[in-house]
Amino acid sequence: GQLRSFSPDLVLIIDAANMGDVPGSIRWLSARDVTGTSAFTHSLPISMLMNYLMLELHCRVSLLGIQLASNEMDGVVCPEVSCAVNKIANEIFTVLFEVVEA
């Protein structure tokens, strides 16, 4: 309900992904790229969430994946993944700051 009342043009989902790449790699993914379910964080495929949000909110939904090093329960986040998270957060902050300043 809160997202609906906000009426976003874009919903950005950032999530760990197993893309078969080097840990910490960042890649845009489409709903078609995401298959299966995860016993750890998602009970349904994230593609179903993406499609639901697109239909309900009438907006674009984008997924930014970060290659995980391990999907071990309660595992420690490796430095490469932490660096990727910080890089994404800094980029989002920079873009939002530029929009606000414009």
Secondary-structure map:
Blueprint: H1 2-6, E1 10-17, E2 26-29, H2 46-57, E3 60-67, H3 79-101
Parallel strand pairs: 1-3
Antiparallel strand pairs: 2-3
How is this structure best summarized?
By secondary structure, the protein is an alpha+beta fold.
Give your account of this protein's structure:
The chain is of the alpha+beta class. The protein is 39% helix and 20% strand. It is built from three helices and three strands, in the order αββαβα. A three-stranded mixed beta sheet has the order 1-3-2, sandwiched between helices. The longest helix is centred in the C-terminal third of the chain and has 23 residues, at 79-101. The radius of gyration is 15 Å and the shape is globular. It starts with a helix and ends with a helix.
Overall 3D form: globular
Give the biggest beta sheet: 3 strands, mixed
Mean pLDDT: 87
- What percentage of the residues does DSSP assign to strands (E)? 15-25%
**What is the helix fraction of residues, given as a range?**
25-40%
Distance between the termini: 30 Å
Give the strand tally: 3
Strand order of the largest sheet: 1-3-2
Rg over C-alpha atoms, rounded to the nearest angstrom:
15 Å
Which structural class is indicated by helix and strand composition? alpha+beta
What is the succession of H and E elements?
HEEHEH
List keywords for this structure.
single chain; 102 residues; alpha+beta; 3-stranded mixed β-sheet; 3 helices; 20% strand; globular
